[in-house]
Write a structure and sequence with these properties.
Blueprint lengths: L8 H6 L4 H4 L4 H4 L5 H4 L6 E6 L5 E12 L5 E10 L1 H47 L3 H28 L7 E4 H11 L1 H6 L3 E4 L7 E4 L1 H18 L5 E9 L2 E8 L6 H6 L15 H11 L3 E7 L9 E9 L5 H10 L1
Parallel strand pairs: 5-7
Antiparallel strand pairs: 1-2, 2-3, 4-6, 7-8, 8-10, 9-10
């Protein structure tokens, strides 16, 4: 009948209930989809999704068998089930990596084919700029060169994303890298009167990372923050230490991002900018994860009830746990 006679502690925990809340009750009254527990063929493994009280969905894998009574007849059903949430997440992660790896190989091949024609177009544009005399024609040549430069940058980003990254680990000064990329955008920062604040001055914490790749991450993030921050706004960079990780939080005072854009922010080619490539954050995610780190985004749009707004990007990178032997190996390769 589906009435619960016995449930162990682990089973109750999976269903997010106390045992006394389930015993003696019909399980289908609590979880309608659970009728599959006693309506399925015994011995057959199945997976279903249970609707929980808080509106979330719980994936469950189960199999059942008959319990024989004293007279050898089928008296009850024993159901063995497990929470598949973590397994599903790992499966999605593996599939995502395989999909992006395949896409990366295609992208790298296309980018390589585009590079040679672009070089020829750029060379011709430079000749035109140098030899043409009419101002209108010179302006057109410069526009051609500008667009060629933009396409070349796109090709470089495609190649960065598409190529397998071979990390060159070494002692890396993360605070120094932040100061370097901020200095590269100093003119734009001063033009928009943006204030850079935070606790970067607290000290230069060393980490064992690929400085060139991490520099690319910081460049993309500071560029996005500057573009999002209004005139006279603020960009805050905070440094946190947590166990074996160093964490940077880059927060701007821009208009924020809607939830649907946050969910897709790290997708390849997704962008809301008129001249954006949709590669910057995808590249950041790839580089950070290749280092064994994590990157995430939080954002809120301003509404009439809440004046707070802006976007915060969090980068979590390992900075300890490198043995002296590994450090010596890195130095010998250098």
């Amino acid at each position: 009948s589906g009435t619960v006679k016995l449930i162990n502690l682990q089973g109750a925990q999976i269903l997010r209930c106390r045992r006394e809340e389930i015993l003696g009750k019909k399980l289908s009254d609590l979880f309608p989809e659970a009728t599959a527990f006693w309506n399925s063929s015994p011995g057959r493994y199945r997976e279903i999704e249970l609707s929980m009280y808080d509106g979330t969905i719980l994936p469950v894998g189960f199999s059942s068998t008959f319990y024989l009574g004293d007279r050898g007849i089928n008296q009850d059903i024993i159901v063995t089930f497990q929470d598949l949430t973590e397994i599903r997440a790992l499966q999605a992660q593996v599939l995502g990596k395989e999909r992006f790896a395949a896409m990366g190989r295609v992208v790298a091949g296309v980018a390589h084919e585009i590079r040679n024609p672009l070089f020829g177009i750029s060379s011709i544009g430079q000749i035109f700029e140098r030899e043409l005399s009419a101002p209108a024609h010179v302006e057109l040549a410069r526009a051609l060169l500008s667009e060629t430069k933009r396409l070349n940058q796109l090709v470089e980003e495609l190649l960065i994303y598409g190529r397998p990254i071979k990390l060159t680990l070494g002692r890396c000064d993360l605070v120094g890298l932040w100061e370097e990329v901020i200095g590269m955008h100093r003119e734009e920062i001063e033009k928009k009167a943006i204030t850079i604040s935070g606790d970067l001055a607290m000290g230069h914490t060393p980490a064992y990372l690929d400085a060139y790749q991490i520099r690319q991450v910081f460049l993309n993030l500071i560029r996005n923050a500057i573009e999002a921050t209004p005139q006279g706004g603020e960009i805050m960079i905070r440094l946190l230490l947590e166990d074996q990780f160093i964490i940077f939080k880059l927060a701007d005072t821009g208009s924020g991002m809607p939830a649907e854009n946050i969910a897709r922010a790290f997708e390849l080619f997704f962008t809301t900018k008129s001249k954006g490539t949709g590669l910057g954050l995808a590249i950041c995610k790839k580089i950070v994860e290749d280092h064994g780190g994590e990157i995430s985004i939080e954002s809120r749009e301003r509404d009439w009830l809440d004046e707070r707004k802006g976007t915060t990007v969090t980068v979590k990178l390992p900075y300890r746990g490198i043995t002296d032997r590994n450090e010596a190996l890195v130095n010998s390769r250098a």
